[in-house]
Write a structure and sequence with these properties.
Helix content: 55-70%
Oligomer: single chain
Radius of gyration: 20 Å
Structural class: mainly alpha
Number of strands: 3
Length: 157
């Protein structure tokens, strides 16, 4: 998080020094700041791992937007057609996430996706209960959730 803050600060400094506060100039400043922080991360321990984390965040955003579009399409199709394909149900999903932040981020992303909703976390924080609108294939849903959890843990750890 500190690396991202410094990257934003370097991008703002780039825009201020160039006198152009356009979006493209800010992106250019962000890119050059990223390169500078990538070089500095060996000397500054706080920045360690920042250069690997940002591409993971971008990859996660692309993945999540793709999944969001697919889920929206599936729910909209089910609502718009006269035949309902939904088969709602609740599953217990065993977590690899351990900290409260990891569990909160995972459950929030699950709830943001149409057709799924995080219901509760067990007292020992090892199981997340999820309501799914389309539960035709429970194992496929678990596999998709494992992939989502893996991508989130790659960002946070």
């Amino acid at each position: 998080m500190i690396g991202f803050f410094w990257n934003i600060m370097l991008a703002l400094a780039w825009a201020a020094l160039s006198g152009d506060f356009s979006g493209m100039n800010f992106v250019a400043g962000f890119f050059f700041g990223y390169l500078a922080l990538m070089v500095l991360q060996r000397q500054v321990p706080v920045l360690k791992g920042y250069s690997r984390r940002l591409p993971r965040v971008v990859a996660f955003l692309v993945f999540f937007i793709k999944e969001l579009v697919k889920a929206n399409y599936r729910v909209a199709y089910d609502v718009a057609t006269p035949v309902w394909y939904m088969k709602p149900g609740v599953i217990a999903f065993r977590l690899k996430a351990r900290t409260d932040v990891e569990i909160m981020f995972l459950s929030s992303v699950i709830s943001l996706t149409p057709g799924t909703l995080s219901l509760d976390v067990s007292d020992d924080k090892k199981v997340l209960f999820i309501h799914a609108m389309f539960l035709q294939d429970e194992e496929q849903l678990r596999q998709d959730l494992r992939e989502l959890e893996h991508k989130i843990l790659n960002i946070l750890r």
